[in-house]
Specification:
Blueprint: H1 2-34, H2 43-46, H3 51-59, H4 68-72, E1 74-80, E2 83-88, H5 103-119, E3 127-137, E4 148-157, E5 161-170, E6 176-187
Antiparallel strand pairs: 1-2, 2-4, 3-6, 4-5, 5-6
Length: 188
């Protein structure tokens, strides 16, 4: 039995190391593309674009990246219709007085993945606004946690309301740190 457990542990360790290396490489590639400019896009840059086209423009470095990612040290990794993945690395500057990463850091990362997942479904001329976000913190994040990844997916996209869910996990072992849901209002 102990031989089987040690084999399983070694497979998990290799898998975790490979996953972490892949996530680091993806993050470096994204950071290199997004290095051009921060800020926000002008209305004339967005006119006639779908939500997916806007996000693709940000990912390609053709539109400015939102500066919140610089402040909180996280980046969008990829976006597909109805799905968005973000990744971050908690820093000491994100700590609360209790000696762990502030819940606002968790919530912002989750909200970004949720919002971009919904945003990716918008037609040209549509916009969204968040009506509510429900966040559940499962484990604390500290500097020892290392890199984390958050994936948001759309659950439902109607004509005026969209809902999405997101999970935040540890890069090294896939453990769940937090999860959230959102309801968004779609407007033209």
């Amino acid at each position: 039995m102990s031989i089987i457990l040690s084999i399983v542990d070694r497979v998990k360790a290799v898998s975790s190391e490979e996953t972490l290396a892949q996530w680091r490489a993806e993050e470096q590639a994204v950071r290199a593309r997004l290095a051009a400019a921060a800020g926000y896009a002008r209305a004339d840059q967005l006119a006639g674009c779908s939500g997916m086209e806007i996000l693709q423009g940000i990912f390609a470095g053709e539109l400015p990246r939102p500066p919140i990612g610089d402040t909180l040290d996280f980046v969008p990794i990829r976006v597909e219709p109805g799905m968005a993945v973000f990744q971050g690395r908690p820093q000491l500057k994100h700590y609360n007085p209790l000696g762990s990463v502030h819940g606002g850091w968790f919530a912002t990362l989750l909200d970004s993945a949720l919002g971009c997942a919904v945003h990716s479904t918008l037609a040209a001329g549509e916009r969204y606004t968040t009506l509510e976000v429900k966040t559940n913190f499962v484990r604390p994040i500290t500097l020892d946690t290392g890199r984390v990844r958050c994936e948001g997916t759309v659950i439902h996209r109607g004509g005026t309301v969209a809902t999405a869910e997101a999970k935040l996990v540890v890069a090294s072992n896939g453990k769940l740190l937090a999860h959230a849901t959102t309801t968004c209002l779609i407007v033209r």
